[in-house]
Amino acid sequence: MRIVSSILPTEELQQQVREQFPEDTFEFYKGLKGEDAYHAFLEADVFITYGEDLEEQDIERARNLKWISVMSAGLEKMPFEGIKKKDILVTNARGIHKTPMAEYTLGYMLHHAKRMDAFNQEQGNKKWNRRIPTQELSDATLLVLGAGAIGGEIAKRSQLFGMKTIGVNTSGRPAEYFDQTFSMDNWEEALPLADYIVSVLPSLETTKHLIQEKHFKQMKDSVVFINIGRGDLVQTDILIKALQNKDIAHAYVDVVEEEPLDESHPLWSVENVTITPHISGKSPLYLPRAFDIFSHNLHIYKGVPGEMRNVISLDRGY
Amino acid sequence: MRIVSSILPTEELQQQVREQFPEDTFEFYKGLKGEDAYHAFLEADVFITYGEDLEEQDIERARNLKWISVMSAGLEKMPFEGIKKKDILVTNARGIHKTPMAEYTLGYMLHHAKRMDAFNQEQGNKKWNRRIPTQELSDATLLVLGAGAIGGEIAKRSQLFGMKTIGVNTSGRPAEYFDQTFSMDNWEEALPLADYIVSVLPSLETTKHLIQEKHFKQMKDSVVFINIGRGDLVQTDILIKALQNKDIAHAYVDVVEEEPLDESHPLWSVENVTITPHISGKSPLYLPRAFDIFSHNLHIYKGVPGEMRNVISLDRGY
Questions:
Q1: Stretch among A122-131, A214-223, B19-28, B66-75 having the lowest mean pLDDT
Q2: For A142-198, what is each residue's pLDDT tens digit?
Q3: CB A92 within 8 A of CB A316
Q4: CB spacing of A285 vs B132 below 8 angstroms
Q5: Residue from B113, B205, B188, B124 nearest A280 by CA
Q6: Which residues form the D-isomer specific 2-hydroxyacid dehydrogenase NAD-binding domain (chains A, B) (predicted)?
């Protein structure tokens, strides 16, 4: 089979994939814009992509394409009309963000509990100050908005740190690694219980601007709010107000409504916020993990018994 | 029994202890210097202390003292001569540091891997900079110098984060939560293997100045060195040299040879070091945990079947 990729991994990773499938040909390109890359794509049986370089007309022109392996979780830019017409198999890399995102969350919870900013400031002042009171995660309560695969990974590690875990999912059904769950109908009741609140919610009609001013007031004053889902969960001016009013103690935001956040935006200057530029899911292990899923799927595609992972329903689009 | 404490816990904690032992009298003082406190001590059956307020003459004068419950791990300042002569039982609070110290270690490993300082600096510059490369703990190798209770707690959590764990203990015997162990005879062979090295070693003849210039050179250039044991593990000028030469990438030091570190000390100004003022073992849960051990022991002292925890051998002194 001819396998064409518009993603150029390291030589080492290319080698690993080739060695697993010696009877197939692999061509790796950096993007699809070059003539060689595009011609290869037109003849490919399998195409590997981040899912942002295809138009309807490309799907029409592709002569042999039977499977598109998207190496990300987002499929918003995929030309599904043509894909459906040609009944092309689509898979994605759902699930590979959970490790870096769980590390990010535990890291910043510990950053807060251990007062790392305060000690850093004292180091700048050359002061050996033992009076800064630190906290523990142990015995604290974590609320995860979005108790799915990523939320579960965060909860799993938090439980090992001795935290109580509460999850919110659509139905409120029990979920692994959560001591308690709430549904989207009564999620507000969970807000006063938490010492740390992390949202991994995607952007949906039901989650857009879900968190309002009143919700911040329902939280403990000492609460830490972490958003690694989508920025439109809360309007930035409402977040700023909650931080300035000290309705909450601190926010760690990896996502904001206006990405990239402009230099002139007032959020940068709020005292009790930590901003990171939508990097919680980034990892040097991203592509190795994505190619692990691909290799697993290619084995099965070629006849090894088993089930392919992350097959996308062309009707639902996820 | 008359139980006298030179530690003054919160009213809530006092209440909890009293309720468990309604037939005994508890007197809590802030220190032993006050006349009331000292007179109470002289008649006490059981004395609760941080272990730094007793002299030989106090032991002589104490009329009824049968048990000293030291609420810390350090016993260096205890007047063991008189204690031995009177055969007074001594217990300590060994083991209650492992949770905060494990949180500290995981927190600062994540601080490094997630480049929190770099993102903090970019926030100061109001720059949304997605090009700062972050790392994962997952797949990295942790070397723990001192694979005991605290080291094991660190290794346990690190394994859950997908790290490989190597431990050094006296004999090199296998230890729970460690994938591999080295003895004090061949510990240097472990140095090149590690991405993170944490020392929890106490100050002993065999550990003083254990880490020399050559050892930093044996480590990976990218290694992160964390010292939460004792500061005399490495001479500070040797550490500074290793940091300035980039023999190692970064050091997180909670302990130094000269505590408190003077304002004029050059270590404060080294670029790739993070200094905290010997606080890794501190926790708001410290006293509750120490009194948990005390209550367990008091039940058994009063006749409930079971074994007392952390009984000190008066001959060995630990």
A1: B66-75
A2: 999 999 999 999 999 999 999 999 999 999 999 999 999 999 999 999 999 999 999
A3: no
A4: no
A5: B113
A6: 106-280
Give the span between the Cα atoms of A300 and A295, in whole angstroms.
9
Best mutation target among A96, A101, A103 (most B Cβ atoms within 10 Å) is A103
Taking CA–CA distances from B273, the nearest residue in chain A reads: A123
Residue of chain A with shortest Cα separation from B114: A104
CB < 8 Å to B266, chain A: none
Asked if A129's CB is within 8 angstroms of B283's CB, the reply is no
pLDDT cut 70: percent of chain B above it: 100
Q: Are B252 and B270 spatial neighbours (Cβ–Cβ below 8 Å)? A: no
pLDDT at B53 over 80: yes
Query: From the CA of A130, how many Å to the nearest CA of chain B?
Result: 6
Instruction: Say which residue the tokens 């139905």 belong to.
Output: A171
Q: Which of B111, B129, B139 sits opposite A111 (nearest CB)?
A: B111
- pLDDT at residue B317, as a whole number: 72
**Do B117 and A120 count as a contact with CB atoms less than 8 A apart?**
yes
Mean pLDDT for A111-123 is: 98
Q: Which of A130, A263, A282 sits opposite B134 (nearest CB)?
A: A282
* Residues A208-233, mean pLDDT to the nearest whole number: 97
Question: Could you tell me where the beta strands, DSSP code E, fall in A31-78?
Answer: 46-49, 67-70
- What domains are defined for chain A? 2-96+284-301 (3.40.50.720), 98-275 (3.40.50.720)
Say what the alpha-carbon torsion angle B107, B109, B112, B117 is, to the nearest 10 degrees.
20
* Residue of A123, A265, A283 to mutate for B, most B C-beta atoms under 10 A: A123
Test A106 with B103 for CB contact under 8 angstroms. no
Q: The complex's ipTM?
A: 0.90
What is the DSSP code string of B97-158?
THHHHHHHHHHHHHHHHTTHHHHHHHHHTT---TTSPP--STT-EEEEES-SHHHHHHHHHH
